[in-house]
Amino acid sequence: MARLPSFILKDVSLAVGDVGNRIGQVSEITIPVMAKTTEEFQNAGMIKPREIAMGLEATACQFQETAFDPAMLALFGVGQRGAHDIIAYGYLESEDGREHAARFEMTCMIKSADAGAWSPASKSSTTYEVAVHTGVLFIDDEEVYAFDDFGYRVAGVEQHPGRRAALRLG
Fold it and tell me: What does the alpha-carbon distance between residue 72 and residue 69 come to, in Å, rounded to a whole number?
C-alpha cells in the first residue's frame, strides 16, 4: 500500500529568550545540520581506508527576519558568554489530515546580525547566524535527537554511554 506524504512542514515561528515570540517577524529558519566528523582509518591488511566517526561537526543555525528590531540586534553583545535560549517551532501536516508539532530547543551564541542591503520601496531583512551549543529536536513531544558538548542521543538513546562513564562526565 502506498504511503501518503506526511510530516510536511507548513509554517514556522521562533521564540528568543527574553525577546519573546517572533511570530510575524521571522521569514525563514534553518535548524542545525547534524553531521559527523570523520577520519580515514587504514590499518595493516586493509586494502582501502575506511571513514570512522570521531564526533560531531560544530552546529549552527540561521534565521531571517523582516524586522530590524533593536531588541534582537542587542543580543549580539549581551552577556559575557552571550548564550541565549532559542526555540524554533514548526507546524507539520500529513496528507491524511494528521497535524504535528515540531520544536527545536537550543542554547546559542549570536555570531552575526546582517542587516543586508537597504533600498527604498523594497522589503529588507536581517539575517542572524548563531553557534548552537546544545540542541534538542522534538516532534509531537517525542525526542528525535539531542546533543551537547559531551554527547548525543538519538530517539532518547545515548550514542556512546561508555564514553561519559570513562571520562567521568556524569
Answer: 5
2 pLDDT above the threshold of 70: no
Contact status, residue 76 vs residue 94, Cβ threshold 8 Å: no
The answer to whether 87 and 17 have CB atoms below 8 angstroms apart is no
* φ, ψ at 69 (rounded to 5°): -85, 120
Helix, strand, or coil (residue 51): strand
β-bridge mates for residue 12, sequence order: 90
Element (H, E) at 87: strand 83-93
| Residue-wise pLDDT tens digits, 108-146 | 999 999 998 988 988 889 999 999 999 999 999 999 999
Give me the sign of the Cα torsion angle 155, 159, 162, 167.
negative
| Strands 20-21 and 50-56, sheet pairing | unpaired
On the 0-12 / 13-18 / 19+ scale of CB atoms within 10 A, 34 is: middle
Which residues make beta-bridge pairs with 147? 135, 152
CA distance linking residue 26 with residue 126, whole number of Å:
9
Task: Count Cβ atoms below 10 Å from residue 114 Cβ, excluding itself.
Answer: 12
Judge contact between 109 and 38, C-beta under 8 A. Answer: no
